[in-house]
Amino acid sequence: MQSPTLVKVACITSIMTGPRNSISDSGGGMYSEWASLSTLVQNGSEDSQSVLKKFHPVAGREVALSIVRQLATNLGITQAAEHSPLTTDREVQWCMEVICFGLSLPLAEHDTVRDCVNVYCEWLSALYSSPKISVPRPIVEDPNFYARKIISHFHNLFVPRKGEVWPFLYQDLGADTINRQAVLCHRVLRTLQQVARGPATLERETWESLLLFLIGINDALLAPPAVREDAGEQLCERVLGVLLEVWLVACERNFPSPPLWRTLRESCLRWRHRLALVEQWNRVCLALTAKLLQVMYGPMFPELKISDEDAHLVPQTMSDEAVAQSWYRLLRTVGDPVDLCRPAVVSQTQAFLQYAIASQNVVDPCQHPCLQGLPQIFLKAIKGIAGQVDAFLGVSQACCWEECCITSVASASGGGGGVAGDKAGGKDQPQPSPTPPTQRRLAKSFSVTPSAVTKGIPKASLIGLTTSRISSNPPASTPNSGPSSTSSITSVTSLGQDIRPPLAPGRPKCNSILHLFGEWLFEAAFIGTDGWSQNLPQPSGASKRPSSVLVDGPSSLQETTSEIPPSLGIDRYESGRAEAMGALCRIFCAKKTGEEILPVYLARFYQAMYHGLKINETRECGETLASILLNSADLFRLDLDGVQVLVPAVISALEIVLPEKELKLKSNAVSRIELRRASIHLLISMLTLPLNLQNLPIKELPSLTAIINQEKNPVTFVQLKPRLMNLLINALQVESDPLNTHMLLGGLMLSVQDSAAAEEVEQVTQPDTITSDTTTNLLSSVASDSTSQVSISSDLRSLGDGSDIVTLQEENSAFGKYFDSAHALFVRATYLVCHRLISSWKTDLNISLAALELLAGLARTHIRETDALECKRAVKWLCDYITYQCWRPPPAHSKDLHSSIVAAFTCLTTWLSAHPQLLQDKDCLTTVLEVVELGVSGTKSIGKPGEPIKMKDEKELKPASMRVRDAADALLTIILEQVGYFPSACGAQSLSSLLDEVLLLRHCNSWTGGRVARQAAVERFRYFVAENATMLALLEEPLGNDQDPQPTVTVLIRGPFGRHAWTMQLRHLPRHKSSVRSMNSNPGRPLPLAEATPRPDYKPRFFPDNVDRIPHCRVDESIPSLDAVMNDNDTVKNEHHLLSQLLERQINLESKSSNDLARNADEKIEECTPPKICHEFQTARLFLSHFGFLNLDQNDNENSTTSGLTALDPSMPGFCTDLESLDHTSPRTCDTVHVFYVRAGQKSAEEILSNVLHETSVSPHFLEFLSSLGWPVSVSSHAGWTGHVSTSWRATIPVTVPQPAHSDHGGALYNGDTHILYWADVSSEVAFIVPTHLMGNMSSDSIDESNYNSDISGGQAWFERSVSESAGTRSYSVNQSGSQNSRTMSLDLDKQPPSLPGSGPSSTSSGDPIKPRRSTKHSLPMQTDTRILVVWLESLEDHLQFPIADLLSCTHTGLEHSNGVRPSDVQVIFLHSLSSGLMRVRLQGPVSRINLATPLVDGMVLSRRVLGTLVRQTALNMGRRRRLDNDSYHPPHVRRRLKVQDMVQKYRCNLSQPELLTFLFSSPQN
C-alpha cells in the first residue's frame, strides 16, 4: 500500500508537468503562467545603486573613506563597541547610501570595502532578538526593511566594477590582496547563511530579496563564459552552495513563490556550462531524495548513504509536503540534461552572444573553449539522475556520491580550457586561492563556521552504500568504477553468486520511476542514433510521439545547423549515454512479478537497447555496450513482454565479450571480470530459449536499416542454438575467473541435459540446414587451446597416444549439421572439461568440484547414441587427473587437494556405475585398477617411466591421505560388487540383504514357530571378525527348504559396505550330478565264499641261507653282541627285559587269536554295512578352513591364527544391541530435501504448509516437478532412507496402511507419514519430503531420534533396519534402540576390556559415556546434517520473506546435532515459474570456502523437462560438498569398519590356537 506522501508526489508530477515532454521546455515549463524575474536579476535593481554614483568618483571615494571609517570604529572590532550616533531613519539611509557606494569601490581600497562589509554584517544582527549595541535604533525597530536594503547593497561587492573584470583574480595585485578580498565575499555569504538558518525573523519580502540577491550574484559570476581562474570558477561552488542551502531553508520557513522558482530555473539554464552547477544540484537532490525516502517508505527502506554534512542540508523540521515539493521542483531546475550534448543550445545566452560579438573574429558562441567541459558535465548530470533512480530502487551502488558531487582528477583532465577545475589536485599547484583557511572545503562546505570539516563516515565508505537500518550486518561493498551495478567477489567467492545489492522489496513500480526520469534517460540513451540531432533542440511546443523519435529525419522546423567543434562530437558524450542506458536497464530489471510496464516504455527501451547493442567495425566493447551488459543480467528472466526480440542483438554483443581472452574495452573503468560475469548471466538465461520456442520467428525492431532489408527471412529461435552453444563452449575455454567458470559449467550441464531430454522425450530433430558461419566451430574447444594440448603429457599412460585430439576431430567432423545435438554437445563438453580440468583447473578446488560434478552429470545423462570410446576417454582423463594430483610434490598436498581427489573418485564411481561396459575393456579396467592401487597404497606397481616395477607385497602403504585411501577402497568395492549388478533384486532402496539372524533362524528346521527373541537368535550363531573389518555370523544348521543333507553353513557377512547373506554346502559332486541316483534302491550284496583259503606254511627268514657259510672276519667282531651291551649298561638291560616281555605277550595274543580263528572258521561271516549318513558337521570349521582363515601349518606363532580371525562372544551383555547399531549404519550417504510451495504474498509457515493439502492450491507444474524428482515409495515397506531415522531402513510386512481417500492433494501425500519420493544410486540416497505440519512437541519419533543420536558420536547417526526388527511392534523397536543407545560409542580403536562400565545394559542408566581416545576427531560435525530446501515460488519477491526459521521444525531428520541448525546454514533452491513456461532459479546458502553446488546456478533459466533432474543433482552435490568440507567426516563404510573394530575390542574371545580349534569342535549354545 502506497504512503500518502507517494500519492502526493504522483499528483504533483501529473499536475505540474502536464505533457511529459514539457520538462525539457526551457520557456518556463511548469511556471509558464507566472512572471519571470530574470530581467531584474540580470540588470540589477535600482536599490543597489548609490546616489554618490551621480558625482565624480574621487568625490564619492573621499566621502566613503571618511564616513565608513568612523562607522566602523563603533562596531567593537578594534575597540569597545559604542552606541550608534545614527538615531533617525534619514540618517541611517544617508549613511547606507555611502556604504553602498563603498562596496563598489575599486579593489585597491580594500580597507574601506572591508569596513563596509563589517558594518553591514553587524547591522544585520538586528534581525535577531538581541541585536548588537552598535546597531542604529531605526534598524532595530524595522530590521526587515533595512535588511532588504543591505542585501541589495551587497550586490555591489560581487559584480565586476566598471572597467574591471574581476581584476583581483588575475591582475598583479598580490596574493595577500586576493585572499583578503575573497574573505570578504565569504564573510558576506556566511553572514547571510547565519541569518537564514538562525533564529532571525524574516518577512516574506526579506526572503524574496535574499533569494533574488543570491540568484543575482550567481548570475553575475556564472553566466559569462568561463575563463581560467575567473571569479566564477573560484567562487562558483561556494555561491551556488549558499544559494541552494538558503533556498532549502526558505522552502521550510517561507516557501518561495512561483516567480522565484521560474527565475531560479531560467538562471540555472544560463549556468549549465559550469560543472559546479551540476555537482551542487546533484548534492541537493540526493540529500532531498534521502529525506524523501524516509518520508515515503519509512525506516525499513534501504537508506541512501550520503555524508553527514549533506544530510544536514535539508532542515530536520521541514514538513513532508515541503520535502516532496522542494525535491520535485529542484529536480526540474536545471532543465533537460540532454541539452548539455548540444553546445549550440547551452551557448544561446546573452553572455555568450556578447562574447562572440566582442571577440576579434566573430565566431559562433558554441566555439567558446569553456564548452569543452560539456561532456563531463553531461556525465555528471546523468550520474546524478542515475543516483536518484538507484535510490528509489534501494540500490545506490551504481551511483557514487563523490562521482555525482565532487570534481575528480579524471573529470578535470577531461574538460578543455581548464573549465573543470581540479580541487583535489590544487595543493600540488602553486596557484593563488581566494579561499578561507585551508581546512575549509569549498566544494562541499556549507557550514556556518569556517573550520567545519566533514563528519561521520569517510568519503571512501560513502561510495555506493545502501544499507537497511534494520540489518545488523550491513553488506560490505567496495568502491566501484564505471556504471557497473555488480561488484567484485574478492570476499564472497564461496557464495557462488555475485553480490549485486538486492533491490528493495518496497521499491516503487517501474512505471512510477519512468514517469519521473524516463524522458531524460530515454533521450540520453538515444543520442548519436538515427534521427537525433546535436545541433539545436526541437522547436518549442513541437511534441513528438516516443515511437517516432528514432525514425524521423531532421525536422524542417529546425534552424540552420551550427558547426560543432570536433572536440565536442557526439562520441565525446558516450560515457553519459552509457550511464543513462545502465540506469534504464536497472529500472526495467527491477520489475516485480506480475507488474505491468506501459508498452510505450517497453518499446522505447527495446529500441534504445537495439541501438546500444550495435557492434562497431572494430569489434570493440564500447562504454554503452559494457553498461548495458553490466546492468541487464536479469533481462531475460523477468517476464518482460516481448523482450525476446532482443535475443539476436544480445547474442551478437556476447560474441564480442565472452570468446575473447583479451577483450578490447574502450573504457578502462570497467572490470573485465564483472563484465564477463554479467554476460554469463545473460547467456545462462537464454540457453533454453531455442528448444522452448523452437520455430517461432523473431521479429526485427523497426529501424532505417530494417526498412531497407525487409525481404530478409526472419530468424527463428532454434536457429540461434548453434550460436549459443558455440558461445558457451568458447567462453568456457578462455574463462579464468573461478566464479564465472562455475556459472559456465552449470550452463553447459543444462545445455546437454536439455538437449538430451528434448531428443528423448519430444523426439526433436535438429534442422538439416545450418548456415555456414555456424559450422566453423564444431570443436573449437579442442583445437585452439594449445596450452591444454601441451599439458597432455606422455607420462600419463592411460591417456593413450597423442593422436586422440586429431582422432576426435576426425570422428566428430561427421556431425556437420548435427553438431549441436545432445551427442555432439556431450562430446564437446566431455572433451573440453576433461582437457581444462587437467591443464588449468586442477589447482582450484571450487572449479575442480564443479567440473567433476559436470562430468558426473554427463555420465548420468541418457543420450541415444552414446559412443563407448568417448566414455572410455572420459574415464581415462579422470584417472589421469587423480594420478596427477596424487603425484604432486608434498608441499602441494593439502585438504583442498585431497578433497578434489576424493571428488574425482566419486565421479569415477558414477561413470563406471552408469556405463558398466567400460570394465569389459581390458585397457580401461587396467587403468582404473591402477588408480585404485595408487589411492590405496600411494604408489603404482608400474610407476612413472623409468621407475622399476614394484610388486604389491613389497610396497609400503603410504596413501596420499586416509580420505583418499577410503575413497579408493570404496571405488574398488563398488567395482567388485555393484558395477553391472545395481540395482539388485531388492531394488535401488538397499545394497544389503534384508535377512538377519532372526529371519534366518525362522527358516531353520529347528524352528518350532512363534516369536524368536533377538538375543536367543544371536546366540545360535558363531561370530568371527576377519582382518579386523569383516564380521562373520555362522549358522551351522541347514535351512528348512534344503532337502539334500549336505554339510551346510549360512553366513551373514557384515562388512564396511553392507550386510550379505550366503548359504554354502560342501558337495563332492556338482549339483547337476549329485542328484543322479541308481534306479534299484537295494542292489544287494554278493554272497561270501565259505571255502577256507589254503594258508602256506613257511618260516620267514631274514638272511640268505648261505650266510652261515661265509667266514667271519675282524669287521664282524667290531659290533658287540647284545649280551655285552647289556652287561655294560643296566638301563639298556632293563629296557631289553621290558621289550622281551612285550614281545612275549604279543606272541601269546597272536597265537590265541590264530587258534580262535581256526576254531571258528566254519561259522558264517557277517556282512559289512555302510554307516548311517551323518547330519551333524562342524561346518563353521570347514568354512573357515576352506577359506583360509585357519592355517595349521604355522605352529611357530601361537597367535598367528588369531591375527586374521577373531572370535566374538555373542553372549556378552551389550553384544546384541551393538550388532543392531552396526546394522543401523547405512553403507551409503543419505540426504533429505524438503519441498515447499509458496503462493504469492505468503509469509507465515502455516499458510505455506497448508498449500499442498489440495491440488487446486498448487500449480499443475509443481505436481509434474514432484514426479520428476524421484519415485514414490511407501514408508512402511521401504527398506531405504525415508527422511527420518525413526522410519528409515526398515521394511515391514505390508499391513493395512491408511491410503488417501482421493487423489486431491498438492503433494501432501509425500509428507513422510505414509509415502515419500525417493531416489538412490550406488553410493547415495535422497528422500524428497513435502511437509504438511510443524513439529511442536516430542513424539515417539523424537524419542527414537534422541536415542539414535545418543548412541553414536562423530556423526554416526546413520542406520539400517532389517525386516525382522521392523516386523515387530513399534514399541518393541523403540525399547530395543533405547537399551542400546543411551551410551556414547567411540569410533576410534579404543582398547576397552568388556568389563568396563558402560559395556552392557546395566550401565544404561548411569549416564556416564565412554570417552573416546580422540574425542575432538569424533565430535558431532555440523556439516553432517545438510538442510536442503526446495521452494516453489509464485512470486519471486517472496524469497526475501521466506520463513526459514519457522519451517525448520518440520524438517527434522533425526540426524540433528545438539546445537541445532541455524537458518543461515540452510541451503535453499528457489524455483519461480515464468509466464513462458520456463523456470528461474535462485540459490541461497551459507558463506563457506566451497561454492554452492552445480549444475544449478543462481539466476539460471531452465525448462521443466530437466527441472527435476537438475534439482536432484544439485541437492546431491550440495550434500557431498558439505561432507567434503568437514574435516571430521567419515564415509559410511569407514564408520561401519570402525564400529566393527570397536566391537572386536569389547567382545573378543582371547583364545589361543588350540582353544580356538576346541571352540570350533564344540556346539554353540542352544
- As a percent range, the share of strand residues is 5-15%
Helix content: 40-55%
List unreliable stretches of 5+ residues: 1-28, 165-174, 408-498, 538-561, 764-817, 1196-1202, 1294-1298, 1336-1423
Give me the secondary-structure category: mainly alpha
User: Main sheet, how many strands, which sense, barrel?
Assistant: 8 strands, mixed
Q: What count of helical segments does DSSP give?
A: 58
Descriptive overview:
With 1566 residues, this protein is mainly α. An 8-stranded mixed β-sheet has the order 11-12-13-10-14-15-16-17. A 5-stranded antiparallel β-sheet has the order 8-7-6-5-9. Strands 1-2 form a two-stranded antiparallel ribbon. Strand 7 (1048-1055) and strand 8 (1058-1065) form a beta hairpin. The chain is elongated and about 190 Å long. Residues 1-28, 165-174, 408-498, 538-561, 764-817, 1196-1202, 1294-1298 and 1336-1423 have low confidence and may be disordered.
